[in-house]
Amino acid sequence: MIDEHAEDGEGLEHDLKTLRRMADRRSILRWMIGTSLVPLVGCAGDATAAGAGSDGGVTTCSKIPEETQGPYPGDGSNGPNALSLSGIVRSDIRSSIGGASGVADGVPLTIELTLVNSNSACAALAGYAIYLWHCNRSGLYSMYSAGVTGENYLRGVQQTDSSGKVAFTSIFPACYSGRWPHIHFEFYPSLSLATSSANKIATSQLALPKTVCDEVYATSGYSGSASNLAQVSLATDNVFSDGSSAQLATVSGSVASGYLASLVVGVAR
User: H-type helices in the chain, by residue range?
Assistant: First the structure.
């Protein structure tokens, strides 16, 4: 049974007011840019990978599938709504907010998404909002799973910058039974509309490479992840089995220094 977490009434509106006081007029205008409801496209890797131009911009894209948001989105569509919490607009998502005090431990992971326009030579898309969430190192989802229903960590919203990028500071998620290691994200036309799932453009998931998963799951704290991973593959996963090339992140780093997972995704306009 879902235990809906008590939420801060100020929510995103309070965050936006705070940001307005700190930002100049040009930044505010960028935040208010809207978009039409259109399909997602994307390509694995970062802006300097294959398909990038000499100036570092993305020049080729492939379609990224629309995926299920799963049973634990925390966007108001299935119980609690993390998007209404004051402080949800943030880059470091390891700690809970809105009066909750939990911190998610695990191997450090930075998640970088780059949003591009597939109908304009994959040009960067600024001013969109991306809501990202994933499980902790025990395979539990804050706001839903027993023992962490009162927490809201590993959830956050950011606006894409002038290069179409966002970067979340997080931890490497577990592999729980029946699913390949993954990260969820939703796209919104702007920060001001990233308040509930009713305003989202689309939803997808990022897959993590097996080699890196093997490295992380050999460390302490990820009990059960190695055995769960051994029982699933990208080809048998119920989300990625129809093709994962557009969703498989490029990952660099190490257990000691932390990892960077990068994925280029875009909106066809």
Answer: 11-22, 25-31, 210-217, 225-229
Separation between Cα atoms, residue 43 and residue 33, nearest integer Å: 24
Over residues 200-224, the mean pLDDT reads 96
Q: What is the pLDDT of residue 153?
A: 99
Global pTM reads: 0.82
CATH of the domain at 99: 2.60.130.10
177 exposed, middle or buried (CB, 10 Å; 0-12, 13-18, 19+)? exposed
Report the distance separating Cα 134 and Cα 123, nearest Å: 28
Q: What angle do CA 259, 260, 262 make, to 5 degrees?
A: 150
SS3 content of the chain, % helix, strand, coil (to 5): 15, 25, 60
Give residue 108's identity as a one-letter amino acid code: P
Domain of 248 in residue numbering reads as: 11-267
